[in-house]
Design a protein that fits this description.
Blueprint (H helix, E strand, L loop, with lengths): L27 E5 L2 E7 L11 H7 L1 H12 L4 E6 L8 H10 L2 E6 L1
Length: 109
């Protein structure tokens, strides 16, 4: 994890990013038949960074796009907002929703 690396004269212009960090969660797309289950993570959940999530909810462009898609395709998409999502815990519910023919869009922190 290079984000915790100390700045020196030799790396002052080097840009550190979150690639390869174990805390970085990327969006997931699971396609099952004609439906899909999309899991979107709004924040990276970096333990070394303090963020005001209430402020970021209001200004999140990603959240605005996801909500707009859910409004436009409201007959085809079921929008679910969960703080901490674990696929194994919600597998039975997702299976029943997919039987109905809905695509599922899950937004998590």
């Amino acid at each position: 994890m290079k984000c915790r690396e100390r700045r020196t004269f030799f790396n002052i212009f080097k840009v550190f990013d979150c690639r390869g960090c174990r805390h970085l969660e990327e969006d997931e797309f699971i396609i099952i038949g004609n439906n899909n289950v999309s899991i979107y993570h709004l924040f990276e959940d970096c333990p070394h960074l303090e963020i005001d999530k209430d402020y970021l909810y209001f200004y999140s462009q990603k959240l605005k796009r996801l909500m707009l898609d859910a409004i436009i395709y409201q007959e085809e998409i079921l929008l679910i907002f969960i703080e901490e999502f674990f696929l194994e815990k919600h597998f039975d519910i997702i299976e029943k929703l997919l039987e109905v023919g809905l695509s599922i869009q899950i937004i998590t922190e």
